[in-house]
TrEMBL record:
Residues 648-704 form the Molybdopterin dinucleotide-binding domain. Keywords: 4Fe-4S, Iron, Iron-sulfur, Metal-binding, Molybdenum, Oxidoreductase. Its cofactor is Mo-bis(molybdopterin guanine dinucleotide); [4Fe-4S] cluster. It holds the Pfam family Molybdopterin. It comes from Gordonia defluvii. The keyword Oxidoreductase applies. InterPro entries: Asp_de-COase-like_dom_sf, MopB_CT_YdeP, MoPterin_dinucl-bd_dom, Mopterin_OxRdtase, Mopterin_OxRdtse_a_bac, Prok_molybdopt-oxidoreductase, YdeP_MopB. It comes from the Bacteria. This is FdhF/YdeP family oxidoreductase.
């Protein structure tokens, strides 16, 4: 049954290219999710796990934050959920011989794919200052090493605590408590690189940084606009909701530089018709926008809405809603009179007729939802673009009523919950006050570092201890070379992980790997088996119960490790009873219920089969907790990305077979790529115009003022129907091209979707 870990890494010599697909999932989806699982886990383990994914007494799928419908199907998972579970629940283990055979330096030229395939981490390992080997270490010794280094610091701000969005609410809560009880708000997280622009924009405009809809709103919408998101790969279960919406008569508009398969068509693998019949057409209108053109597009649509109101006063805008709930309408209307059509055409790259069509659809619809993800947030003007999305929705009262709203689609399965629990470098004083009152200390108020500032601080030698609760910061952050040299300057790096990745091989002087239980595994503590809780994209909170025995007796839960680290470091400082929290997670949940807004009776509410939905002002009561107490229609200065002649705007995307820096396979089925990742997708006319050929190998240079060019060598050109002037390559490989300084205004999110590049034939 079980597969072996690869010894050799892959090469890209055999890349196969075929035409991209025009629909997602279907029979291929189910086959592709089950086949590797059965091969690696065996039939029995596969069946035990797959029947429990996203079920009420089962575990929450760790692949994405898509919500669960009220009526869950027998198999409530998708192809990519299947891959995530298989990857975590593999019986392959990293045995002691691995560490003996592989000095850390020898792992530096291994790919993320190879590292991730070596199996599960099964015991704590430590790399001493002058050693190039990790060696097994006891848990007690591991905790002592961390405690000693933290205690030696001159200032608690010399430590930073990174979180990736897979951590449970319980682990996240204890983790932020540990950091703050130590005295720092240095709590950078993956969200800084992800939906930070969303949080920044929405908090300003509507007073909450989260989706304003419930799952059931999809079925009630009559127009759904999907911007900068590839649901067929990254949120496959969303396609089921979209198909349902279509059956209820909704229209769907997709806005994307790439004709992603899941936006064009869909076959539901869970329905008989999906196996046999033709695909459901998803997008009624596909707008192939130029990268970074969305802000101009939103302004142009709003301008048309305002013109329609002028032509038929009193019939277009939701005057009652605007009068009761919104600020800023007059200034906004005034500002848009100056919108320059030529600028809009340059920014969007689409004819005015397509914008007219979108505006007409918007005006015809009574209930509109706009969804977005990384194609919007990871731009220099990402925050303003989201504010323009909100503006458009507010004009016709499309927030806070059934079938309508703003719906950022989150990434990591619990990234939203981690934030709710206080993992953020800039939690508001109200939260810190409640935390301090609950635990009897005064939490630090000075904001901490985010991910990008964290790398800067490491580079400047200001951070001496870096702890990662999951994730792979070095694989995920921009400017790989700079980030890696920065991490090497720190005294101690600590990773709490399930599997090996780049952040374990590029380390501080000393390094620790602390192996954690995955979400599939049973978490047994002194008081018995524990459940944890998570929050999805639409603010629904529910329990997740591990199902299978842990991969090794030495592996501990994230919560237990964090509580252990805190206890070893802080001992009885502030009188916080870490041991009680470790013994029984109900104790943590009781604390949560008193500290975190909306979480009263947290134990009781998360024990119900469906969990509960967190309060949400705009959704529940059209209540906008902004500084003015009203929703804010904003004026934003239009700026689009200028790309000099002979250059392309490169975006970094996920393949169909990866989860962020985790590479499941070397294929990208929907885009027609097999057996390799070193490709750059370019429009055929751009290929010709640049004097290059399809299939040719090129070096990709990114240009940034006053800095030497960054380069990624040897990518194969794939002629592809992307928008003109745009190109795409895979993340994380292409992170070397993103300058650390290139971040979104206000949110500081790396600009991973608009890198000005030059292609030169490879030597
Ligand atoms: N299987 C799988 N599931 C995942 C993940 C994964 O890696 N694998 N990652 C998880 C995480 S953490 C996240 S955040 C989400 C990410 O989900 P997505 O945001 O869907 O991820 P990306 O691959 O970055 O795709 C961005 C999309 O935006 C488009 N785009 C790029 N630039 C622009 C632009 O300027 N305008 C517009 N309109 N579109 C643009 C791209 O062509 C692409 O389709 O998925 C989550 N789910
Ligand atoms: N160029 C470019 N860069 C990007 C992006 C992009 O689109 N383009 N996207 C950004 C986005 S949206 C995000 S969210 C970040 C992702 O940044 P991260 O969240 O830091 O990265 P991941 O690749 O999701 O982390 C994978 C690692 O998490 C660990 N892990 C897996 N499961 C568990 C678990 O249950 N517990 C613990 N403790 N560890 C676990 C494993 O060791 C695995 O190797 O990357 C960002 N970087
Ligand atoms: Mo993300």
């Amino acid at each position: 049954m079980s597969a072996k870990a690869p010894r050799e890494d892959y090469t890209d010599a055999d890349i196969e290219v075929s035409p991209p697909k025009t629909f997602a999932a279907g029979i291929g989806g189910v086959y592709h999710s089950m086949e590797p699982a059965i091969r690696q886990l065996g039939v029995a383990r596969t069946a035990a796990l797959m029947a429990k994914i996203n079920h009420k007494d089962g575990f929450d799928c760790m692949s994405c934050a898509w919500p669960d419908p009220d009526h869950r199907k027998l198999a409530e998972f998708c192809e990519n959920g299947g891959k995530a579970v298989t990857w975590e629940a593999t019986p392959l283990r990293i045995e002691r011989s691995f560490w003996r055979e592989h000095p850390v330096a020898s792992l530096l030229d291994k790919s993320e794919y190879w590292l991730g395939q070596q199996g599960r981490l099964i015991e704590p390992v430590y790399k001493a200052k002058d050693s190039d080997h990790y060696e097994p270490v006891s848990w007690d010794d591991a905790f002592t090493i961390v405690a000693d280094r933290l205690t030696e610091l001159d200032d608690p701000n010399q430590a930073a605590f990174y979180t990736s969005g897979r951590a449970s609410n319980e682990a996240a809560f204890v983790y932020q408590l540990f950091a703050r009880a130590l005295g720092t708000n240095n709590l950078p997280d993956c969200s800084n690189m992800c939906h930070e622009s969303t949080g920044t924009a929405m908090s300003y405009s509507v007073g909450i940084g989260k989706s304003t809809i419930a799952y059931s709103d999809f079925a009630a919408a009559d127009l759904i606009i999907i911007m900068g998101q590839n649901p067929g790969t990254n949120h496959p279960r969303m396609l089921t909701a979209l198909q349902g919406a279509k059956e209820n008569g909704a229209t769907i508009v997709a806005i994307n530089p790439l004709p992603e398969a899941g936006l064009i068509g869909y076959k539901d693998p869970q329905r008989v018709r999906g196996y046999l019949g033709t695909a459901t057409k998803i997008a009624d209108q596909f707008i192939q926008i130029r990268s970074g053109g969305d802000m101009a597009l939103m302004q142009a649509v709003s301008q048309r809405v305002l013109s329609a109101e002028q032509a038929a006063p009193g019939t277009v805008l939701d005057h009652d809603f605007l009068a009761r709930h919104c600020d800023g309408f007059e200034a906004f209307a005034e500002h848009l009179t100056g919108l320059d059509d030529h600028e809009v055409a340059l920014a969007t790259g689409i004819p005015a007729a397509e914008i007219d069509e979108l505006a007409a659809r918007y005006l015809k619809a009574e209930r509109v939802i706009v969804c977005w993800a990384m194609g919007i947030t990871q731009h220099r003007k990402g925050v303003d673009t989201i504010k323009e999305i909100i503006n458009l929705l507010l004009l016709r009262g499309n927030i806070g009523r059934p079938g309508a709203g703003a719906s950022p689609i989150r990434g990591h399965s619990n990234v939203q919950g981690d934030r709710t629990m206080g993992v953020w470098e800039q939690m508001p004083d109200s939260f810190l006050d409640a935390l301090g009152a609950e635990f009897g200390f005064d939490p630090p108020r000075e904001h901490g570092v985010d991910s990008v500032h964290g790398i800067r601080a490491l580079d400047e030698g200001k951070i001496k201890v870096w702890v990662g609760l999951g994730g792979n910061l070095l694989g995920a952050i921009s400017d790989t070379a700079l980030a890696e040299s920065a991490m090497r300057k720190t005294r101690l790096s600590v990773q709490l992980s399930t599997k090996l990745n780049r952040s374990h091989v590029v380390t501080g002087e000393e390094a620790l790997i602390l192996p954690v239980l995955g979400r599939t595994e049973i978490d047994l503590q002194e008081s018995g088996p524990q459940y944890v809780t998570v929050e999805d994209s639409v603010c629904a909170v529910h329990a997740s119960h591990g199902q299978i025995p842990p991969i090794s007796a030495e592996v501990r839960s994230e919560t237990a490790i964090v509580a252990g680290l805190a206890q070893a470091t802080l001992r009885d400082r502030h009188g916080i009873d870490w041991a009680a929290m470790l013994r029984d997670y109900d104790v943590i949940r009781d604390h949560i219920s008193r500290v975190v807004p909306g979480c009263a009776d947290y134990n009781a509410k998360t024990r119900t089969r469906d969990g509960f939905v967190l309060p949400n002002g705009p959704r529940d009561a059209r209540r906008f907790d902004t500084a003015t107490g009203r929703a804010r229609i904003t004026v934003n200065h239009l700026e689009h990305v200028h790309c000099p002649a002979g250059r392309l705007l490169l975006q970094t995307v996920r393949s169909h077979d990866q989860f962020n820096t985790t590479i499941y396979s070397l294929n990208d089925r929907y885009r027609g790529i097999k057996k390799g990742r070193h490709v750059v997708f370019v429009h055929p006319d751009d290929v010709a115009q640049l004097g290059l050929r399809d299939g040719q190998h090129v070096d990709v240079f990114s240009e940034w003022p006053d800095q030497p060019d960054r380069v990624l060598r040897g990518l194969r050109i794939v002629a592809f129907p992307t928008a003109r002037g745009c190109a795409a390559a895979y993340f994380p490989e292409a992170n070397v091209l993103v300058p650390l300084d290139s971040t979104a205004l206000e949110s500081n999110t790396p600009v991973s979707k608009a890198i000005v590049v030059r292609l030169e034939p490879a030597a």
